[in-house]
Amino acid sequence: MLIEREAESCYLGQFIPLQYHHNMLMDSNRMDNFKAAIQYRVFEGAKVLELGGGTGVLSWFAAQTAEKVYCVEFNPDMVAEARRLLALNHRGERVQVIHADAFEYLPPEPVDFVICEMIHVAMLREKQVEVIENFKQRYAEKFPGHMPIFIPEAVVMAVQPLQQRYDFLGFQAPIIQFQLPGAFTADTTELGQPALYKIIDFTQTNEKLIEWEGQIAIEHSGQLSALRFITKNILAIRGEDNSTIDWLNHYMALPLARPISVRAGDLIHIRFAYRTGASIDSLQNAIEVEVDQVQSPSRSQPILASV
């Protein structure tokens, strides 16, 4: 069983290269917001567990106030790297880096917080949901009546219709694209507003299958050529002012197999189903789009499209 999961993990990106983890240290959006959430949540003397620790930086944030941090990492290269880096940093000695499988490890004592950042857009590829749901069940059996606070606390996901240009110096290539949130590009036109399709609350039991069927109103005429998937991670909820500390993943734009002409007032009906932690292809192949166009003598039939 462990061999099968290890093989799947390698395929789905769990053993990503060391340099990728180094690049994440340079991602100010990710780093700033996780640091803020951990500083807000973790109190003096707390006990913390991180599942999938990578370089150990999130555990180190927690160690500035926590008494003890258990940092679990399955990749032996990352275990060595986390230990090396933590030894260079003040209070890094508060972090115990443990070479173990997050699907199997339990701390030797109750913890107050669990940090887990195994997150990909749309909760694909990485095993955030599976790891946390598995952990909650095993932890409740070992420490009944006590459940830690999770960071992130929740994930909000939405889908949005796009007109996406796929011209690369004359080379036509409808490819999956990852886009910076808030960055304007003339190659992308938002044809409608994002539609919420899933909220994952880690205080609740979450199913691994995500299914959605809904509709979005087209606000701007154009060529519907892609669907954008948006994933916002609620890292911490600030009860005193009813605000949140968030981390927004890069957008993921999946191209449609055939662009569809749409105009303002049309409704697009979207259906898809996929399992968390699965490949991007599993979502891409499941998407169905039907356009109910504004009635006119020449445009009176629904048009179907798939990704």
State the gist of this model.
The chain is of the alpha+beta class and 307 residues long. It contains seven helices and 18 strands. One of its GO terms (biological process) is methylation.
How would you explain this protein's 3D organization?
InterPro entries: Arg_MeTrfase, Methyltransf_25, SAM-dependent_MTases_sf. One of its GO terms (biological process) is methylation. GO terms for molecular function: histone methyltransferase activity; protein-arginine N-methyltransferase activity. Residues 48-136 form the Methyltransferase domain. With 307 residues, this protein is α+β, with helices and mostly antiparallel strands. It folds into 2 domains: 2-117, Rossmann fold, CATH 3.40.50.150; 154-306, Hnrnp arginine n-methyltransferase1. It has 7 helices and 18 strands. The chain has helices spanning 2-12, 18-25, 28-41, 57-63, 76-87, 128-142, 280-284, and strands at 47-51, 68-73, 95-99, 113-116, 149-151, 154-164, 167-168, 171-172, 177-179, 188-190, 195-201, 209-217, 222-238, 243-248, 251-262, 267-275, 288-292, 303-306. The strands form 4 sheets. Strands 6, 9, 10, 11, 13, 14 and 15 form a 7-stranded antiparallel sheet that branches. Strands 3-2-1-4-5 form a 5-stranded parallel sheet, sandwiched between helices. A 4-stranded antiparallel sheet has the order 12-16-17-18, with no helix packed on it.
